[in-house]
C-alpha cells in the first residue's frame, strides 16, 4: 500500500466523532501526513454537526487554512439511523461543556465534488482516508468514474471479517450506516486498504494517555480531545470489562492513519470484498479468502487489502509518540 519514508497528501473523509477527532489530530501531528482537506458525512452526528466539528477542531488546533466541506446527509439506499449520542455525545465530541468562538467557514463545494476536484488537479497523488459511512466516495465515483485511477489510494476504517460486529453480530457501524455506498466503493477498483474491527478491537487506548497529552501540551486542542475521550471511554468501559480495566477506548479511526504510514504493524490478506446491502446481515463485509472459482457470480471484482492482524503495542506506541510531538503552536 505505501512506502516507508514517503509523504502522504490526504483528504480526510470523516464524521467527527471522538475517535475521528483523535485521528484528525494524529494526522495533523504526523510529519509525513499533509491533510489537504476534510470532507464530512453523516454518521456519528448529522452532517451539519460533523462539518461544524471539523471546523472547530481545526480552528482550535490552529489549522484554519485546511478546507472543510459538507457531504452526504443520509444513506444512499436505506433510511438513516439516529446518531449514537450515547457513544460520541449529542455534539459528537463527548458533550463539550463549552466551545470557543471561531470564524471559519465551509468550502461551498460538496464533499464528493471536492474529492473529484483534488484528484483531477493532483492525479495519482491524493490518498483518501475515509472513517465514516462511504457516501461521499460513492458520489465522487458517480461524478468521476475514473477516480480509482486518479487517486493514489483509499484507506477505510470500517468493516469486519472474523471479529464480531459492533452494530450486529456481523456488521461494523460505518458500513452498516450505508451498505450500498460501501459496496460501490469496495467494487470500484481503488488501491484500497480496509482497517476494520479485526484490528481496531485489538488496540485499546487508555484515557490516561490523553490526560498525559493534555498535561504535556497545555493547549485547548488536547484539552478538548482529553474531555471527549473521557466521555467515549465510559461507553466502551461499560460494555467491555477488559476495556474498563484500563478505562480505555478503541481508537478505531486513528488506526487508518497508522496503517497508511506504518503498514509493517499490520498483517494483511488480499481478496475481493462485497457488502450485504439489506436484510439481517446488512453491512456485513464478506471477504473472498480463497482463489477458487465459485458458481455464485458477483465476485469478479478487484481485490483489496484487508488488515487482519495488528501489532497492538506498536500501534499504541506510535499513536503516543506522534501526538506527543511538538505540533501545536501556543
Ligand atoms: C466506527 O464507527 C464510528 O462510531 C467511529 O467513529 C468509527 O469510525 C467504528 O465502528
Ligand atoms: Ca468515524
What order do the helices and strands follow?
Answer: EHEHEHHEHHEHHEHEHHHEHEEEEH
Tell me the radius of gyration. Answer: 18 Å
Secondary structure: number of strands: 12
Shape assignment: globular
Distance between the termini: 36 Å
Estimate what percentage of residues fall within beta strands.
15-25%
Question: Which range best describes the helical content: under 10%, 10-25%, 25-40%, 40-55%, 55-70% or over 70%?
Answer: 25-40%
Low-confidence residue ranges: 1-5
Q: What is the average of the pLDDT values?
A: 96
Strand order of the largest sheet: 3-2-1-4-5-6-12-9
Task: List cofactors, ions and other ligands.
Answer: beta-D-ribofuranose, calcium ion
Structure annotation, total helices: 14
**Largest sheet: number of strands, sense, barrel closure:** 8 strands, mixed
Class from helix and strand fractions? alpha/beta
Please give a handful of descriptors for the protein shown.
single chain; alpha/beta; 8-stranded mixed β-sheet; two-stranded antiparallel ribbon; globular; disordered N terminus; binds beta-D-ribofuranose
Overview of this structure, please?
Helix 1 links the parallel strand 1 and strand 2. About 50% of the residues are buried. It contains 14 helices and twelve strands. Helix 1 crosses helix 11, helix 4 crosses helix 5 and helix 10 runs antiparallel to helix 11. The strands form three sheets. The protein has an eight-stranded mixed sheet with strand order 3-2-1-4-5-6-12-9, sandwiched between helices. The chain has a two-stranded antiparallel ribbon with strand order 7-8. It is about 40% helix and about 15% strand. The longest helix has 20 residues. With about 325 residues, it is of the alpha/beta class.
Amino acid at each position: 500500500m505505501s512506502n516507508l519514508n514517503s509523504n502522504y497528501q490526504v483528504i480526510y473523509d470523516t464524521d467527527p466523532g471522538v475517535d475521528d477527532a483523535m485521528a484528525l489530530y494524529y494526522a495533523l501531528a504526523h510529519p509525513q501526513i499533509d491533510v489537504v482537506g476534510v470532507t464530512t458525512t453523516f454518521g456519528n452526528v448529522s452532517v451539519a454537526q460533523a462539518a461544524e466539528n471539523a471546523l472547530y477542531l481545526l480552528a482550535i488546533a490552529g489549522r484554519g487554512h485546511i478546507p472543510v466541506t459538507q457531504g452526504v446527509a443520509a444513506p444512499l439506499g436505506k433510511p438513516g439511523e439516529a446518531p449514537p449520542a450515547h457513544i460520541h455525545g449529542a455534539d459528537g465530541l463527548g458533550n463539550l461543556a463549552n466551545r470557543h468562538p471561531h470564524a471559519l467557514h465551509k468550502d461551498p463545494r460538496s464533499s464528493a465534488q471536492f474529492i473529484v476536484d483534488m484528484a483531477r488537479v493532483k492525479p495519482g497523488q491524493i490518498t483518501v482516508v475515509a472513517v465514516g459511512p462511504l457516501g461521499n466516495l460513492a458520489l465522487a465515483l458517480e461524478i468521476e468514474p475514473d477516480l480509482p485511477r486518479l487517486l493514489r489510494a483509499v484507506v477505510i476504517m470500517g468493516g469486519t471479517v472474523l471479529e464480531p460486529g459492533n452494530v450486529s453480530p456481523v456488521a461494523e457501524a460505518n458500513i452498516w450506516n450505508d451498505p450500498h455506498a460501501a459496496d460501490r466503493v469496495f467494487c470500484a477498483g481503488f488501491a484500497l486498504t480496509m482497517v476494520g474491527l479485526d484490528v481496531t478491537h485489538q488496540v485499546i487506548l487508555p484515557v490516561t494517555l490523553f490526560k498525559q497529552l493534555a498535561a504535556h501540551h497545555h493547549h485547548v486542542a488536547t484539552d478538548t480531545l482529553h474531555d471527549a475521550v473521557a466521555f467515549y471511554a465510559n461507553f466502551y468501559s461499560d460494555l467491555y470489562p477488559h476495556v474498563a480495566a484500563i478505562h480505555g477506548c478503541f481508537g478505531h479511526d486513528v488506526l487508518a492513519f497508522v496503517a497508511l504510514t506504518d503498514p509493517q504493524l499490520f498483517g494483511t490478506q488480499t481478496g475481493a470484498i462485497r457488502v450485504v446491502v439489506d436484510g439481517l446481515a446488512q453491512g456485513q463485509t464478506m471477504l473472498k479468502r480463497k482463489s477458487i472459482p465459485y458458481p455464485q457470480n458477483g465476485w469478479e471484482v478487484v481485490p483489496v487489502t484487508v488488515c487482519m492482524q495488528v501489532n497492538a503495542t506498536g500501534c499504541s506506541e506510535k499513536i503516543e509518540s506522534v501526538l506527543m510531538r511538538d505540533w501545536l503552536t501556543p
